[in-house]
Amino acid sequence: MLGSLPSNDIDVLNLVFAITH
Length: 21
Fold this sequence. Notes:
Elements: H1 9-20
């Protein structure tokens, strides 16, 4: 799914967090 990013786990988590909230 969202595994195409280099090492921006924080960015991904932030995105998911914003979507889920």
